[in-house]
Structure formats: C-alpha cells, structure tokens
Amino acid sequence: MYGAEFAQIYDLIHQGRGKDYAHEARFVADLAREKAPDATSLLDVACATGSHLTAFADMFDTVAGVELSEPMVEMARRKLGDTVHLGDMRDFDLGTRFSVVTCMFGSIGHAMTEPELVAALSRFEAHLDEGGVVVVDPWWFDETFTPGHVSGDVCTVDGLTMARVSHAAREDDKSRMEVHYTVAHPDEGVRHFVETYLARLYTREQYEKAFVEAGLATEYVPEVQNGRGLFLAVRA
C-alpha cells in the first residue's frame, strides 16, 4: 500500500483526474477558522505527498505533516523539507501543538479498529492548541459505502499517460479497494502495478463516539468532500 511506484505518479494522476488541492485546502481552512479565527499553524496527518499541505502553507504561518509511507514522505520532503515527518497516526509525537489538525482524503479509515481510531484521534487532540480545531475527512460510513463500485480514468500529464481502474468490495466491516495502474512513457515504455487499500467502514455514530473518547466535541458537516462529509472537533 502506497508504495514507491504509486508515490511517483500520485500527484500527476490526481491532477489529471481533476482533484483541486488548493480549493479543498481553502475550504477546510475557512471552516477551521470559523472555530479558531486566529489560527496560525496547521498539522496535516497522513499528508501523503504533501499536496494539501503545500496549499495550506500559503494560508498558515507554520505547517507540518505526518505520513506513514516512506516513499510518500520522500516526495513530500521535496516540496516541504523536514516539516514532513515519518510517523503513524496512532502513536506519533512531534512535541508541539498546532492551531488546526487535519486528516484528509479518508485516511482516518486506515485506523482499523475502534481502539486504533480513538488512539489516532487522541494523538490529534494531544497536538492541538487551546482553542484549536480538528478537521477529519472520514472514509465512507458503513451505511454509505457502495460495494461493487468501479471507477476508471485515463489522463496524460507531463508526458506520462496513466490509466487507473478500481474495484471496491466489502469484507465484513472493511472496504477493500483494488486499483490497477498502467503508466506509459514515450521512452520508457509501459508498466503496470496494483495497489490494494483496506479501510474500516465505521458508522457515523462510531466516529462520534471515538471523538468523545478522545476528549473532543464534534459536529458533522454533511455532503461535502464528494459526499463523505467532514467532522469538525474542538476540545470537549
């Protein structure tokens, strides 16, 4: 999951598929500042290659990122330097606090059990300034996940033609997404690789209970983020 081959094309394929990191970052920053109008610093957990974080850097005086995948950290550091840290959302400790802590793109779903979810949210709370806000873009809820969903895209960016085809299935209380990538370069030819992503399908109530256990009072903003919604949380 999130290996070196994927890290190399991550930004390009999302760019080609139309993902607007700057727009998403501005939307999240504006929501956060409704709760914490004087926010000056932001931590993005599970920051991948740092595309959201790069946009956040134009909106906050101080930014930092945490990411579990070493290839993703390597790519993010090319943009943001040592502000990106290798770490696990369940147990990282940067020794500092931030006005805003974000976790985007459904990454919180990689906390595979309820204790792991509480552990991750507790880490977010531990890195939060007084008066700060946590913003979590959840994975699909158990009740909104669509098993059998198939997606496919082909795009050309910076001389690479890339195809992405995915299939999503349910395995008990988890989603399993298998994604096939084909990458063609005029000089290097064609290569193909597969990544499989497992994520926990929590109910909305399970998320809200975990926030409470982590010492956070939350509200849910429906329909945004492609229908997954957002959680906004402050210290209880």
Summarize the topology.
Elements: H1 4-16, H2 21-35, E1 41-45, H3 51-56, E2 62-67, H4 70-80, E3 84-86, E4 98-103, H5 114-126, E5 128-136, E6 150-157, E7 160-171, E8 174-185, E9 189-200, H6 204-213, E10 216-221, E11 230-235
Parallel strand pairs: 1-2, 1-4, 2-3, 4-5
Antiparallel strand pairs: 5-11, 6-7, 7-8, 8-9, 10-11
Helix pairs in contact: 5-6
Task: Please supply descriptive tags for the structure shown above.
about 240 residues; alpha/beta; Rossmann fold; S-adenosyl-L-methionine-dependent methyltransferases; 2 domains; seven-stranded mixed β-sheet; 6 helices; about 30% helix
Explain this structure:
With 236 residues, this protein is of the alpha/beta class. The protein has 2 domains: 4-141 and 202-235, 3-Layer(aba) Sandwich (Rossmann fold); 150-200, S-adenosyl-L-methionine-dependent methyltransferases (Single Sheet). 29% of the residues lie in helices and 36% in strands. The protein contains 6 helices and 11 strands. The protein has helices spanning 4-16, 21-35, 51-56, 70-80, 114-126, 204-213, and strands spanning 41-45, 62-67, 84-86, 98-103, 128-136, 150-157, 160-171, 174-185, 189-200, 216-221, 230-235. The protein has a 7-stranded mixed beta sheet with strand order 3-2-1-4-5-11-10, sandwiched between helices. Strands 6-7-8-9 form a 4-stranded antiparallel beta sheet, with helices on one face. Helix 4 (70-80) links the parallel strand 2 (62-67) and strand 3 (84-86). It is globular and about 55 Å long. The model has no long low-confidence stretch (mean pLDDT 96).
